[in-house]
Amino acid sequence: MQQVQDTPEEWRVVATTTPFTGNKTSVRTDDVVMPDGSVVRRDYQVHPGSVAVLALDGQDRVVVLRQYRHPVRQKLWEIPAGLLDVPGENPLHAAQRELYEEAHVKAEDWRVLADVYTTPGGCDEAVRIFLARDLAEAEGERFEVAEEEADMELARVPLAELVRKVLAGELHNNCLVVGVLSLAAARAGEGLDALRPAEAPWPARPFES
C-alpha cells in the first residue's frame, strides 16, 4: 500500500541567481536538473515563513479580521497571521505576538492545527496554523497598526457560518480556509485534544524551543 506522506527531496541545482530582493522576500532563479538529465529554469519567491492563528472563543466563534490585499484587489476576511521575522524564531511565540497585535487577545491553550505550503509551485512559504482556545482580552495598550492594517475590521464569527461560507466560495484566504476546515475535520475525527502540541517539530522552519 502506498504511504501517503510528503518526503524531503532535492534535485540538483547547477546555477542560481537572485534577480530581485525585497524588504521581506526575494525572487530566486534556479537551473534544476530533471530526471531525464535536462536542465530547466525555475523562478520562485523565497519567503521567511508565516504563522496564523485560528482563535476560538467559548461561544464557538472565530476571531477574524478584514483587510485589503492589493495583489488580489479585494478585502479578505482572514485569521490573525504574520511573518516569522527572525530566522529560527519559535513559531508559537510569533503566533502569540500576532494574536496580540492584530486582535488584542491572548490564549491559554495552544495546539498545531495544520502545516501548509501556500503556493509550492512558485513560492517556498511555509505556514503553521495554530488553534488557540481559552481566550481573554490582552493586557496593556493596543498595538499601534499602520498601512493596510490601519483599515482593518475585527469580528467574531461562528465556526459553522465560516465553514458554510468557505464551501459556498465566499471566503478565499488560504489560512482561514485551511484553518476552518481543519478544525471541523479534527472535531469530526479524534477531537481537538488529539491535535499536535504547540511546540511540535516543524521541519519546514526548524526552531529552538
UniProtKB/TrEMBL annotation:
Q: Which PROSITE patterns match?
A: NUDIX
Q: Which CDD domains match?
A: NUDIX_ADPRase_Rv1700
Instruction: Return the EC number.
Output: 3.6.-.-
Known Pfam families for this protein?
NUDIX (PF00293)
Source organism superkingdom: Bacteria
One MF term in the entry's GO annotations? hydrolase activity
Q: Which InterPro entries match?
A: NUDIX_hydrolase-like_dom_sf (IPR015797), NUDIX_hydrolase_dom (IPR000086)
Pinpoint the Nudix hydrolase domain residues.
45-179
What protein am I looking at?
Answer: NUDIX hydrolase
What organism is listed for this UniProt entry? Streptomyces exfoliatus
